[in-house]
Request: fold
Amino acid sequence: MQKKDIKNFTLNEFQEEVKKLGVEKYRAAQLFDLLYKKGIEDFRDMLSLPASFRDLLQESFYISKVELIKLAKSKDKTEKYLFELQDGNLIESVLIFSGKRLTECISSQIGCKYNCLFCESGKKGFTRNLTVSEILNQVLFVKKKMKSNPNNIVFMGIGEPLDNYDNIVKVICILNSKDAFDIGARKITISTCGIIPAIKRLQERNWQIELSVSLHAPENKLRSYLMPVNNLYPLPNLIEACKNYAEKTKRQITFEYILIKGVNDSLNYADKLAKKIGGFNSKVNLITFNPTPGSLLQAPDISQVKSFKNKLADRGIPTTIRISKGDDISAACGQLKSLHLK
Ligand code: SAH
Reply:
């Protein structure tokens, strides 16, 4: 029998597994505590469990790990981790320090299908979804290193989280679980390029998580140019889906808008954006374009970013400017690509 990766199970699922082994249900929560709170990486070291249960676990399951291949540190303290998975694929996570708060930006896929014009992560195409365990291992690694949970988890690394929907939902259950990481839902952000069917599914869960939608253009044609996924899920339908989501969950949606010089940064676009998204609970997070190798796109001056922000604010749209970190080590948004120079 092939052994199963134990970190792919939510607590409910693992309780079923434990039952199948003929063991009491409460042992599942005990095991979660050992795995995720104590960070134990070998069943043989789980001495608080009965030896017979440890043997059963050993026969049926294994505990996976990621291997750190490279750690890059930015001048602003941001850290970028390059991890090797058990099948040799590489992924990246980024740890951002703001005061005492730690935000971990994690990857959800190997590569990305959506190939946005401004983003490095989709340039080499898509390989596969990450498993629940591979996603959790990014958080466990940081937890071990920092000796505490990251304060915030953002799905803004490589990949499109809502294209790996089932696994992301399980990951959030485990991050959120009191028996595992115990990270509050409001401390977890999903960032999506706008996969409408998945937004609708997520809405039914009525979770308190943060949802960020990468918008980047207030016009359908321009958005398709920047983000080919817009041909599949056009802007008007996406905004409608976001409105429904905000109304159903009573949560504010964040629209992310990268400002690219001469492409989408004129104040005319700020006006159009305000018209498109006004009228429901949303805000805009402006991001200055982070340069990627070989790209002809450029960042606007900070004065233009501020004017764009003021224009949106004048139109009643709450707006913040994202301070990008880690750009000197290619760890900023859109710069991750798991480049591995041995
Ligand atoms: N696929 C998801 C999550 C990954 S991208 C999404 O599209 O949202 C994470 C964030 O980085 C998004 O807001 C994305 O729009 C932004 N981003 C991508 N490339 C960028 C670049 N070159 N400069 C600045 N932000 C970028």
